[in-house]
Amino acid sequence: MLDVQVIETSSLGDRSYLAHDGEVAVVVDPQRDIDRIVALAGRLGVGIEWVLETHVHNDYVSGGLQLARLTGARYGIAAADDVSYDRVPLRDGDVLEVSPRMRIRPVATPGHTFHHLSYLLDGPTGPEGVFTGGSLLLGTTGRTDLLGQDHAHELARRQRTSAQRLAQLLPDGANVWPTHGFGSFCSATQASGDASTIGREKQINPALTLAESEFVEQTLAGLDAYPAYYAHMGARNTAGPGPIDLTPVHTADPAELRRRVDAQEWVVDLRSRKAFVHSHLAGTISLGLDGPMATWLGWLIDWGAPITLLGDTPEQVTQAQRELARIGIDRPAAAATGDPAQWAGDRHEQVATMTTASFTDLAHALRHGHADSLPAPTVVLDVRLAHEWHDSHVRDAVHIPLPELPHRLGEVPAGPVWVHCGSGYRAAAAASLLARAGRTVVLVDDAFADAADAGVPMAA
């Protein structure tokens, strides 16, 4: 029996895989921080023979090239992908005899990209599953607009054809192992479940249940914005990413932190938003490590802008470095650890707090014009994405998606701003941006799903 190990990167909604027979292994779609994979192979006592990419990735910097160089493994990529380094060009119909007990069969599955490959995994008794990358996901498929809107319709059509082909090639009991779909913006719609088989997908996946015209229409209608940093990932992966560097960065003292804040640089507080609202260095931005920090920071910044990281501990900063390196932000400009009082130094007035509220508070304030010592909401700002807004929103709210807010702060009407998102994480980032701009802000740190029941007037 073959064993497939999952290497989860939950902050990006992706998975890498290591499949082995007890002696040799194949790695599929490795993230850039390959030390996790090398350590796993060491614990299992297996040698990595092949490193395979399903496609040139748009959502992260691949570790495949460096993993192959480090281990001496063969590096397989679609022959049609034009890359700047040596690799084994793979085509539909090839057979990789990894060992007498393990075989890989590349299958052309265009849709997420034009040259996308999936990899069928065969054991001694036949097919065990398929590594589908951004093709057939769990209850959905990969998005088809990453190569431009001009190609989205054609790729959606091909995506369905590819899913149908996999369903025909494999038995119902074969496992489906996608790279995307666990919160990744590479997924066309929200994925369903944590594991699946071809048989289950035949029952629930729109690519296998809808006619072509219906699938294409549904897929294109569901596509929303995706992170701006994606624009840099494909080119980086085509050129050949260098090795990751996680050595400690320069430590900033209070004077340097103040200079960076005054210059409107991205000084990012990695602590939870609960800690941030209680006490933070004025002018810093809340993007806690308890959420998808790298995704939102990579989306918000002007690419190449200096970033300074603030954390409780060196370990927190190191974790943030790792997450940022996965999307090509290699070296933060500076870092500091401790607490806001230490970061402020002798300028105690630079330690700030933030006002928070619930949707119940917002309902009361909208009804009565005030809410127990909270500033009356002149404007309610919704920073969720477009599809969330269209599903339901607070009546008369202003909608500016979080990724657009840094360049649209001037569009927020004057007066106290009550800002919300779906759960509080994005709203905390937005509230800190508004506070840095000198606005009076209340963070609605609450679940939007509860807003209607709390009495907030809603519109659809």
UniProtKB/TrEMBL annotation:
Which Gene3D superfamilies does its entry note? Rhodanese-like domain (3.40.250.10), Ribonuclease Z/Hydroxyacylglutathione hydrolase-like (3.60.15.10)
Give an example GO molecular function: sulfur dioxygenase activity
Is Metal-binding among the key words of this record? yes
- Cross-referenced SUPFAM superfamilies, in alphabetical order? Metallo-hydrolase/oxidoreductase (SSF56281), Rhodanese/Cell cycle control phosphatase (SSF52821)
Domain called Rhodanese: residue spans: 374-460
Pfam families in alphabetical order: Lactamase_B, Rhodanese
Q: Name one GO biological process term.
A: glutathione metabolic process
| Keyword set, alphabetical order | Hydrolase, Metal-binding
* Name under which the protein is recorded: MBL fold metallo-hydrolase
Which taxonomic lineage does the organism of this UniProt entry have?
Bacteria, Bacillati, Actinomycetota, Actinomycetes, Pseudonocardiales
